[in-house]
Amino acid sequence: MFDVVLKKIVNQCPGAVGALIMGFDGIGIEEFVADDNDLDLTLVGIEYSNIVKEIRHTSEILKIGNLHEVSIKSEKFYVIIQSVTDEYFVALVIKRSGNFGKGRYLLLRESFELKQALS
């Protein structure tokens, strides 16, 4: 079920490289990588899960509310991370030439279905 949703997100977002669902503990649930890419999406998820945990912790300390989304812009990629539940997030990696806005929209649109499946 997760693979179908992730594939839909990647295939509908111009420039998307892959998407994954992972726990904030760094344990992956499912991922989908576009055929023409060799990016180690699991490693990306593991490394960024540590950063997102720190951001979540900082948000709690500052009492600014729950973390919903983190966007990272590097030289080659955008990485959009959205919380799905308190334990899981979905991440989408997009080439810099891709459509960042559509990627955010697709993650938001599919987050309800992902949340239901994780319950």
Question: Could you describe the 3D structure shown?
Answer:
By secondary structure, the chain is of the alpha+beta class. The chain contains three helices and five strands. The protein has a five-stranded antiparallel β-sheet with strand order 2-1-5-4-3, sandwiched between helices. Helix 1 packs antiparallel against helix 3. The longest helix is centred in the middle third of the chain and has 22 residues, at 41-62.
Which helices and strands, and how do they pair?
Layout: H1 2-12, E1 16-23, E2 28-33, H2 41-62, E3 69-73, E4 77-83, E5 88-95, H3 100-118
Antiparallel strand pairs: 1-2, 1-5, 3-4, 4-5
Helix pairs in contact: 1-3
Quick description:
The protein is of the alpha+beta class and 119 residues long. It has helices spanning 2-12, 41-62, 100-118; strands spanning 16-23, 28-33, 69-73, 77-83, 88-95.
Tell me, what's the shape?
globular
Using only C-alpha atoms, the radius of gyration works out to 13 Å
What's the number of helices?
3
Q: What does the average pLDDT come to?
A: 93
Features:
single chain, 119 residues, alpha+beta, five-stranded antiparallel β-sheet, 3 helices, 5 strands, 44% helix, 29% strand, globular
